[in-house]
Amino acid sequence: MKTLSLLCSTSVMLVTTTFSATALSAQTVYKDFPAEVMPELSESGELSVGVKTIEVAYPEAAMTMSGEMVKRELTLEVWYPASQSTDLAESKLAVYSDETRSGKSFEIQADAYRDAPIMATDENYPIVVISHGYTGYRTLMHYLGEHLASHGYVVAAIDHTDSTNKDVNFAESPYSGFPSTLLNRSRDQVFTLNAVAQHSFFADDVDETRAGVIGYSMGGYGAMSTVGGCYAFNDTTAATFTGTQDPATVQLVKAALNTCAGGKPSNDDTLPAWRAALALAPWGGQQQLFDTKSLSNIDVPVLFVAGDNDDISGYDGIRWLFDNTAHKDTKLLTIKNARHNVAPHPAPKEAYGSEFDLGSYIEPAWEEQKLNAINEHFALALMNCHVKAMPDYCAFLEVTGSSDQVPSGGETPAPWKGFDNRWALGLLMEGKDGK
Questions:
Q1: Structure confidence at residue 87 (pLDDT)
Q2: Domain count, the chain
Q3: Under DSSP, is residue 307 helix (H, G, I), strand (E, B) or coil?
Q4: Taking every annotated instance into account, which residue ranges of this chain make up the domain PET hydrolase/cutinase-like (predicted)?
Q5: Residue 4: per-residue pLDDT
Q6: What's the CA gap between 85 and 222, in Å, rounded?
Q7: pLDDT value of position 66
Q8: Cα–Cα distance between 56 and 59 in angstroms, integer?
Q9: How far apart are CA 34 and CA 37, in angstroms?
Q10: What's the number of CA atoms in the CB half-sphere (13 Å) around residue 187?
Q11: Which residues is 56 bridged to in the sheet?
């Protein structure tokens, strides 16, 4: 997080696209804060960050919900540790260009160098895949991409085709991309891991056997399957969420949806590379769209993050996912007085013209930058602990109960590890041991 300075086994077909960083009206959406008021692990790492936009395509035609076979292509934004040689001076700071739900274009100033050389390493970088919600865009959580890359990860964020702000006219046909989202979210995440590992720019410097996944909302719905959960749509939910009415077609839809681990028939097919998952306000629990036995067999830790007033994914639904995910290191971080928008970057100025746009960014009671910092802190702790196997970082996840430091017996509890005194208000951490 910014604190007083801006910069502190499937073959795939790949095409690389280079974008120029012409900052026409690029805005900075983060303010400078003293480090003491933000979580310790939200501080940027020592590594400079590069970013590259690449286009990737599934090696074979993908089936749509209607049974049509089509070429499926994805745009990825990939962050990575950048070479700190003189070559970096020849690169430009990137600009992220996206649009709001109503179609208003905006540009955000990046904290990463466009197409910079990757920094050579003796120990290859783990890969983290980031997956946005419905609708969204690949740089919706660019702060996590930049942050993790500055600490030694290659991080790939997906533009999920059919599910972005550009793809969906949310005002007139808000659910037009939802069937594709249900079908492809986990498939895209698994494919992205393989695509980055095989891309010519990254292949020599990444370790595809060590990976994590971060998913927000529908991205969380996908992440739960990616690490081993199996979907369990029934006739009613399959018909409701795809708009299908014909009974025979509903059966075909169910067969297409009810898969595991990126479209596989069983969670036995889960890629062993996945070491951890961060599920930010994951969708699907409120309708119990997952097979509970498969959730109990997930073999990696999942950190759930949820607002206790989430009215999109439903807090009770997120708790249902947490309760049924049995891995001993699975945890639930509750953000008190928060709704669903616990993951997006702060709103660009173009979103402030209407509630329709602004409502997909801001929270009624929380500042987005603080939420972003909390996510950075716990994402780094999770990935370093379980993906890089750095035990010192596990202690940051072992906080329990309320962060509020409510005095008891005349004594004020110590703050959570990684938070300064008085600056961790409004959080609750629960683990599988009932604490």
A1: 65
A2: 1
A3: strand
A4: 122-225
A5: 37
A6: 38
A7: 82
A8: 9
A9: 6
A10: 25
A11: 14, 74
- For 265-368, strand residue ranges (E) read 274-280, 302-307, 331-335
Q: Which of 200, 168, 20, 153 is nearest to 92 (CA)?
A: 20
On whether residue 165 sits in a domain, the answer given is yes
Place of tokens 């997930």: 298
CB environment 283-316: b (16+ within 10 A), e (fewer) = bbbbbebbbbebbebbebbbbbbbbbebebbbbe
Residues in the chain: 435
Residue 7 lies in a domain: no
Residue 190 lies in a domain: yes
User: Both tokens of residue 179?
Assistant: 């069937």
Which range marks the domain in which residue 157 is found? 13-431
Helix runs in 132-246, H state only? 142-150, 178-198, 218-226, 235-242
Dist CA 66 CA 228 (whole Å): 25
- Per-residue pLDDT at 25: 80
- Residue 391, domain CATH: 3.40.50.1820
Residue 92 domain-assigned (yes or no):
yes
pTM: 0.94
Angle between helices 218-226 and 178-198 (to 10 degrees): 60
The pLDDT value given to residue 337: 98
